[in-house]
């Protein structure tokens, strides 16, 4: 883990030591991005300090250059084996009639609910942020 840089300014993410986040927000962001247009992330906004809180943020245009915010991809927050295990609807929607398609959608919804429960417990311990001085690793602190 990178040491805290006391000289970091309040718009420099290198000042961050830990980020608190809701596991539900991380899971919801991942599912949203897989199932909808647009992208969902966990967002941390300046002014930056040692302990920060990430919140769910959905966008169609990335405004990080304008706002200075840090976007944490849900795929970087949830354990890789859980990301790989996400149920894929497209590969199972090969049904020829609507009744079968409805059953497949219901099974997919049930599979996503099961995955959601496992993924809430699969938040990684730390994540790398890109700063002007290179990569800066911060701890993740799940809430709840």
In short:
This protein is of the alpha/beta class and 144 residues long. It has helices at residues 23-35, 64-67, 74-77, 80-84, 98-120; strands at 18-21, 39-44, 51-53, 55-59, 70-72, 126-131, 134-142. The protein is built from 5 helices and 7 strands; from the N terminus they run E-H-E-E-E-H-E-H-H-H-E-E.
Separation of the first and last Cα atoms:
24 Å
Q: Spans of 5+ residues with little confidence (pLDDT < 50)?
A: 1-5
- How many E-type strands? 7
How many domains comprise the coordinates?
2
Along the chain, the helix and strand elements come as EHEEEHEHHHEE
Query: In which order are the strands of the major sheet placed?
Result: 3-1-7-6
Form type: elongated
Your description of this structure?
- The protein is an alpha/beta fold.
- Helices cover 34% and strands 25% of the residues.
- It has helices at 23-35, 64-67, 74-77, 80-84, 98-120, and strands at residues 18-21, 39-44, 51-53, 55-59, 70-72, 126-131, 134-142.
- A 4-stranded mixed sheet has the order 3-1-7-6. The chain has a 3-stranded antiparallel sheet with strand order 4-2-5.
- Strand 6 (126-131) and strand 7 (134-142) form a beta hairpin.
- Helix 1 packs antiparallel against helix 5.
- Residues 1-5 have low confidence and may be disordered.
- InterPro entries: DUF8009.
- Residues 8-144 form the DUF8009 domain.
- This is DUF8009 domain-containing protein.
List the helices and strands and how they pair.
Elements: E1 18-21, H1 23-35, E2 39-44, E3 51-53, E4 55-59, H2 64-67, E5 70-72, H3 74-77, H4 80-84, H5 98-120, E6 126-131, E7 134-142
Parallel strand pairs: 1-3, 1-7
Antiparallel strand pairs: 2-4, 2-5, 6-7
Helix pairs in contact: 1-5
């Amino acid at each position: 883990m990178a040491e805290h840089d006391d000289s970091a300014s309040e718009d420099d993410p290198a000042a961050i030591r830990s980020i608190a986040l809701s596991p539900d927000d991380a899971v919801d962001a991942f599912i949203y991005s897989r199932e909808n247009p647009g992208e969902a992330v966990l967002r941390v906004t300046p002014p930056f300090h040692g302990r920060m809180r990430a919140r769910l943020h959905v966008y169609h245009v990335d405004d990080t250059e304008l706002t200075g915010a840090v976007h944490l991809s849900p795929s970087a927050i949830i354990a890789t084996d859980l990301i790989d295990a996400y149920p894929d609807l497209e590969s199972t929607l090969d049904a020829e009639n609507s009744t079968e398609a409805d059953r497949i959608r219901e099974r997919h919804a049930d599979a996503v609910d099961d995955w959601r429960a496992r993924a809430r417990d699969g938040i990684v311990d730390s994540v790398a942020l890109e700063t002007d001085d290179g990569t800066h690793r911060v701890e993740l602190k799940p809430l709840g």
